[in-house]
């Protein structure tokens, strides 16, 4: 399945003299499937350049870094402290989203975070305030909107007319690891 790039053009910088766009230097925090998708999309977009990946599991970080020919670290704070980094992507267990993204925003980095943004409305509102105060992009990645089934349906709407009803189901490819642990993922019904 071919997927569209996810690099937000608002993160792209241009030369103040009206020159060529500079590539956004991106730190990838997390080295799993979503992080790989994001790194590939950023690289393939031509608008961004992954510079470093972080994972607490050294073998994962090393493999990811070799695949993209970038540096790696085991400490996410090193990514955020890196003065070359303009933006970060955060694809880690949901319980860590608030701590990492807030720190990145406070350090002046744009941030793309996997859904859910955080585990509480209060934390989400605080992250938004930090981003607004620092004039930074805070993007919650809802990547399904950019995947082929959704893009195909969207492209066919003019031919089929306004949908009156839709039904969809999603079968995950074997949930495992942190995702099945509610203490790390968060309770999806906690805000109800």
Polypeptide structure, described:
The protein has 192 residues and is an alpha/beta fold. It is 36% helix and 17% strand. The strands form 2 sheets. The protein has a 6-stranded parallel β-sheet, with helices on both faces. The chain has a two-stranded antiparallel sheet with strand order 1-2. A hairpin with a 6-residue loop joins strand 1 and strand 2. Helix 4 runs parallel beside helix 5. The relative contact order is 0.14. The N terminus is likely disordered.
- Please state the average pLDDT score: 83
The neighbouring-strand order within the major sheet is 5-4-3-6-7-8
Q: Give me the CATH fold name.
A: Rossmann fold
The major sheet is characterized as: 6 strands, parallel
Q: Which band does the percent of strand residues land in?
A: 15-25%
How many structurally independent domains?
Answer: 1
Structural class: alpha/beta
Note the total helix count.
7
The best one-word shape is globular
Termini, distance in Å? 34 Å
Tell me the CATH architecture: 3-Layer(aba) Sandwich
CATH homologous superfamily designation: NAD(P)-binding Rossmann-like Domain
**Percent of residues in helical segments?**
25-40%
């Amino acid at each position: 399945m071919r997927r569209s790039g996810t690099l937000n053009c608002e993160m792209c910088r241009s030369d103040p003299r009206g020159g060529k766009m500079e590539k956004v230097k991106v730190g990838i925090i997390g080295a799993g499937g979503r992080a790989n998708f994001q790194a590939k999309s950023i690289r393939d977009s031509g608008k961004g350049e992954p510079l470093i990946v972080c994972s607490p599991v050294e073998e994962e970080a090393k493999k990811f870094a070799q695949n993209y020919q970038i540096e790696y670290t085991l400490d996410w704070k090193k990514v955020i402290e890196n003065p070359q980094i303009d933006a970060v992507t955060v694809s880690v267990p949901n319980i860590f989203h608030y701590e990492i993204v807030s720190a990145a925003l406070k350090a002046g980095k744009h941030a793309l975070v996997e859904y859910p943004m955080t585990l509480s409305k209060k934390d989400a509102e605080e992250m938004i305030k930090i981003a607004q105060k620092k004039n930074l992009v805070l993007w919650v990645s809802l990547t399904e909107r950019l995947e082929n089934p959704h893009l195909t349906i969207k492209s066919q709407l003019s031919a089929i007319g306004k949908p009156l009803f839709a039904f969809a189901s999603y079968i995950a490819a074997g949930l495992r690891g942190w995702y099945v642990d509610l203490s790390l993922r968060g309770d999806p019904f906690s805000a109800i």
